[in-house]
Amino acid sequence: MKTLFTCWAVGALAAAFFAFLPASNAHAASLVTDGSSEIGSFPIAESDMPNTSWRIDTSSVGSATVTSTPFDFAGPSNTTLSNPTGWTRVINDSEDDDYVRIPAGFNLGFNGTNYTSVYLGSNTYYTFGAGDSEYSGLGADVPPLPGVHVCSSDNSYQRVYYRFDDANTLRVRYEGTDSTSGTVGQPTIVYEAVYYAGESYHDLYIGRNDSCSGDYGPDAAKLGAGDDGDYSLPATLPGSPEYDRGDFYADTLTFSEDLDPTAMTMVEDAITAGASYPPRAYEWTSSSTLAIYATTSVTFYDDVLTPLTASDYDFAAYVLLIDADDVAPTASYLGDGSYDYELSSTCPSAACDLGNVFGNEITFSEDLDLANRAGVEAAITAGASHPLSEFVWGSASLWIYATTSVVFADDVRVDLYDALGNTATNQRLIDSLPTPPMTVWVDDDYTEFSSGGHVWGEDAFDNISDALDAVAEGGQVNVLAGDYNNDSGTINKNGVTITGPSSGSPARVADDCDNVITVDGASGVTISNLTLLQTNGGNVDGTYCYNSPVVRVGWNSASTTISNNFIAGGYIGIALRTDAYDVTLTDNNINNNDWAGVVGLSQGVHIITGNTIEYNNRGLSLGEGPGGTQTANWQGSEISSNIIRENEYGIYYALGSQPGPMSIGPDNEIYDNGDGIYINGPAYDVHINGNSIYGNTVITSGLHIEGADTGVDAKENWWGDATGPYEANDNPEGLGDTVYIGVDSQYIYYRPYCLDDGCVALSSVSVDPSNLSTLFDNGGSITPILTGPDDADPATYLVDQLQVNEDVNISFPSGSGTSTVTLPAGTVITKTGGGTFDANDLTAAETALGSLSGFPTGQVVEGAIEWGLPDLGLTFSQPITVTIFVGTDLNGRTLTIVRSNSMTGGWTNDGIVPPAQCVVSAGLCTFQTTKASYFAANSQASSGGSSGGGGGSYSAPGAVGDGALTVSISLGGTGNLGRLGAKGVNVLHYINSLANFEAQESKSGLYGQHSFKVTDLDLLNKKYTFTIQSDPQIFTLGLNESVQVDLDGDGVKDVSLKFTNLYVNRIETTIKSLTAAAETPEVSTIGQTVVTLVADFLAANNIVRDSALESEVLAQVQADAKEFNLVLEGMSAIVDYVTYGNSVASLKFGRGERRAILRDYMETVNRNNIVWEDMERLAVGQIPKVRNLEKERANVSRALPVFRKIFGHDPNFQNETENLAWNTLMYRIRFTRDLGKEGSGLALYRKLYGRYPNTPFGWSVVRVLGYVK
Questions:
Q1: Cα separation, 999 vs 1111, whole angstroms
Q2: Are residues 551 and 418 part of one domain?
Q3: Which end of the chain is more exposed for a tag (fewer CB within 10 A), N or C?
Q4: 539-555 burial code (b ≥16 CB/10 A, e <16)
């Protein structure tokens, strides 16, 4: 089979058409035939060329012109249509060497003849009048049928469609795939043809054609190699005919076939135009051979290309005749980069007269490829501030026109390539003042010709200084691995990051004895992952010169971060000037700097963490530079987790006292220095905690303090030995690093110290009453705090409070034994009721029993001590432990603990941690208390005679049975309930606990002594068993069940016991007297009495009812009740409570807070009928009486972890504080509003959880922290 390709006539029409030809060495021409001869042809688009559109006008022989508006220049899609709506497929997938007839329904004009049908062949042609089925039937010179052949490829797979756009327009589409490549659905040849009724032309849209076969146009055996420079005609040999006639230079150009005469002329013209001097003569020895003669040397600096037409009309576009070089095209760009380029005025000119009043010309070193021209236009259009009106191309030039002013805010760049594919990337067309790049790259190997794919001089540099100048504010400079000698830079733009490689080879930047990096007046700068060196000679392998800071930050710079750098060789490694603010230094290695690794004279919050600072004179010099000292505010700063070693001074501090806390620690390793830390001058509120300070070598060693008259906090550090630091006055036995306290320094607190390098355990101290004052000395077991002025009396030591820093054990003789007072670390001691007290008056001593009086009848004092201030009360922020020696004769006895501020009365168990008892062991009675000053451990005297059921005048201390209060009895403990009344007493007790009480007995009318003991608890069935001890009777009660008991056998029930409630591990029993004299009914502070008199309450408080507001509240309460699955009773009283309040306590809350209290009650108690007394209790810091066991159990999993987080252990319900805290979490208890306490609680909550509370439970945690703990 032979593919047919012919060509159209050359001449003026061909010359006009060349501008539209695709740029390729040689292309087959498609054929227009009248059935006996060729009447025209047109270029086709191959796979790498743009789609094209043509109008086939055969009214005159040989015309084929580019279609114009409104036709589609994009051509058809290169993907298959499948079965699109409106199209009919007439050849389906595989019909080799076949055709189909499509009737048009109107006359189709072609070459002066009208046809009614078009025939579509399977091998990419369409014909008129008849169809042809054989690919091989198409002769090379005499096609048998009138028609158009698009490549004429021998295809085996194809799809052919047609559709009518309207009654006068027929459209056909061909999708073909040859037999050796591709599959149906991935066409290699695509075209569409559109026929119009009564017209002599039709339109052909050619898409992809990358499998054409057949003849190609003529080619030339080019002169020159293209890779050895400019081509010159070779010299002729002396004695040759050419030389003898004066043609000293000559060469011969041959062609693959005979050329058309016109093409011969075009060849000569092209060679003449490209020559440095015109050749003397051209001699065609045949139609395919051309001799070129010159009398002088002729050089061709650029390629010579021309279209060729063969004598048989085969055509080729842009045939290379002379291959002079392979230089890629360049452009003469507009603008000089110093301003945003603007098109110039064209007036007066012809262009201006046509409306193109702005414009300019870009010239190119050679002709561009046709497709590249479109890319140039697109790039210029994209960069223009306003639409451009016209692009006008010359052979190697482009005029840009606009009807209005056009500005280019950025450079315009584009890849340029010529017809041979020689490409110059990223060529500048317009040079405007560039927008600074956000990312800049630095490599010491970059050059103008090799910059890693970046733009040299714009975002690619070989030095840091230029890169920092170029980068935009907020941008990043990436410094690649390499050696940057004699290089430095200044950062004066906000937000700039300069960073080196995070791994692998480093970026080493060295300068000759000058700042390597300077931060000048910029905020938010980051310097990271660089090796910064100051060396003699400016080379990275040179010696250090110790001349000036390697890195300097100042001139109102703020929030600078310097991280992961190696900094060495300067006089100072990093210098923070007085006008630098809020600097962060992390994970740097700062070493071998002559004066200091870091000098900090700056202001603000500084974070210095994770650094290794070594082999400097001073590691950190804070507040002192080579020019002197400078106090500064570093409040909130933290120096932590650094390794500071092998310096003359590890940390030198001279910043002065701070207005708020500043931390040196935790987790600094400060060792093998001269002085570990040197404090020079006041350092109030500087906290040196949690560090390891050891192995420092000079005599003043670990911590050297001079002039710190306002104190230094250096607690909880490891000093290299479990005995603590050596301190001459207060810890001379210490074997660790020295704490040296100069004579002008005071309040230096280094206790407690760590007992191990992990600081798992802290030191404690033991003293006797004779040396209590040593607790307040330097060392700081107890810190005295006085907020007001001292009284200047040297005999007194006035304080507002004492802060206990380490566990303190005070021991003193007591009878034949020893009594002790233990103050746990963290305890704050204040005077009860507030005010100052004299710490010198603190006393710890045994008290003579005979000097005590004022106890209730029947109490016997077994032992007593004094701890506190005579005749004054003390309050402890947490329970302290007191142990009184009472003698071994009392072993096993339970004693009652009471206290008083004097020795003669006012004895109470207030402040004694419940159960306010001790069980004597080894002669010792141990208990806890939150108040002082005199303590007595008492037993109960035996009662006198008895009458009836025991009778006697026994009266238990602290009797509570008449008050309907609650008594807590510990596990295995004993509680004295006192005399029971008709109101009874609530008892919280554990299994095996014993409760003593007195009850009036009907037979005698006297009060008899009795007790009951809990002996069993069935949690599963909510039952428990108790025994009446005095007249053994055993009862089992279920939850909410009660029993009445006859105590004296006279048939009259004396008491009732009711199983009131069950908690996680406690039982609540209500025990009442049934025979006591009538008592006045208990009246709640709120309850129904107040509710029914709400009108009086409103009037008394000048509150006017608001019916609209009540309606709004009613809707809210109903919605709340629905949320918690409740049907509330007494809704009008509830609405009154939320809207107005119904008591003095509730009136203190706003309407929103009252609703919140009600919602909390609904959620936690979950009752339809509200117990108003409990609502009042919840509002004033008290525990509700009517509780919800199931809700408590459900809430344990949420409340218990919170309680543990706050208190560090499970709740002790015998401790009033912990019991109230637990119930605050369970029932959301409120307290009388105190903004100070509330703010403190909120701050502690944020410290624990890192956020603000956003749930009712979260706010209950705040109240525990602020009001309870």
A1: 52
A2: no
A3: N
A4: bbebebbbbbbbbbbbe
Model confidence at 62: pLDDT above 50: no
What was the pLDDT predicted at 793?
A: 67
Helix (H, G, I), strand (E, B) or coil at 211: coil
Asked if residue 564 and residue 463 are part of one domain, the reply reads yes
Q: Which residue reads 């008449």 in tokens?
A: 962
| pTM of this structure | 0.50
CB 54, CB 40: distance < 8 Å: no
Closest CA to 195 of 123, 116, 78: 116
CATH number at residue 998: 2.60.98.10
CA distance 342 to 261: 48
Helix (H) or strand (E) holding 265: helix 261-274
Residue 964 has pLDDT above 80, yes or no: no
948 in any annotated domain: no
More confident residue, 149 or 180: 149
The domain tally of the chain equals 7
Two tokens, residue 169: 């327009």
Report d(CA 1014, CA 659) in Å as an integer. 59
Q: Contact, 714 vs 689, CB < 8 A?
A: yes
**Residues in the chain, total:** 1269
Question: Any idea what DSSP says for residue 133?
Answer: -
> Parallel, antiparallel, or unpaired for β 874-885 and 894-900?
unpaired
Return the minimum-mean-pLDDT range out of 802-806, 1091-1095, 1252-1256: 1091-1095
150 shares a domain with 179:
yes
| pLDDT for position 1074 | 85
Residue % of the chain over a pLDDT of 70: 82
Say whether both 1058 and 1110 belong to one domain.
no
CB-neighbour burial class of residue 730 (10 A; exposed 0-12, middle 13-18, buried 19+): buried
Q: How far apart are CA 193 and CA 176, in angstroms?
A: 15
Q: Strand pairing partners for 764?
A: 807
Are 974 and 958 in contact by the 8 Å Cβ rule? The answer is no
Residues 452 and 544 in one domain: yes
DSSP letters, 892-947, are: T-EEEEEEESSSSS--B-TTBPTT-EEE-BTTEEEEEEEEESEEEEEEEPPP----
Of 593, 627, 661, the residue at which a domain comes to its end is 627
State yes or no: cis peptide before 626, omega within 30 of 0.
no
- What kind and span of H or E run contains 203? strand 201-209
SS3 28: coil
Pairing of strands 624-625, 628-629: antiparallel
pLDDT tens for 244-260 read 899 999 999 999 889 88
> What are the pLDDT digits (tens) for 885-928?
988 888 888 999 999 988 888 888 889 998 899 999 999 999 99
CB under 8 Å, gap of 24 or more: what pairs does 1180-1184 form? Answer: 1180/1145, 1180/1230, 1180/1231, 1180/1232, 1181/1220, 1181/1229, 1181/1230, 1181/1231, 1181/1232, 1181/1267, 1182/1229, 1183/1219, 1183/1220, 1183/1223, 1183/1227, 1183/1229, 1184/1223, 1184/1227
Q: Is residue 711 included in any domain, yes or no?
A: no
**85, 105: one domain:** yes
Residue listed under structure tokens 């006393």: 843
On whether residue 496 sits in a domain, the answer given is yes
Highest mean pLDDT: which of 938-942, 1023-1027, 1085-1089, 1118-1122? 1118-1122
Query: Would the pLDDT of 798 be above 80?
Result: yes
Question: The tokens 């293209």 sit on which residue?
Answer: 226
Nearest to residue 936, comparing CAs of 958, 956, 960, 912? Answer: 912
420 and 447, same domain (yes or no): no
Residue 269: which H helix or E strand, with range?
helix 261-274
* Residues 1134 and 1052 occupy one common structural domain: no
CA quadruple 1261, 1263, 1265, 1268: dihedral sign: negative
The model's confidence at residue 701, banded by pLDDT at 50, 70 and 90, is confident
Domain that holds residue 273: 220-322
Q: Which of 960, 940, 933 is nearest to 860 (CA)?
A: 940
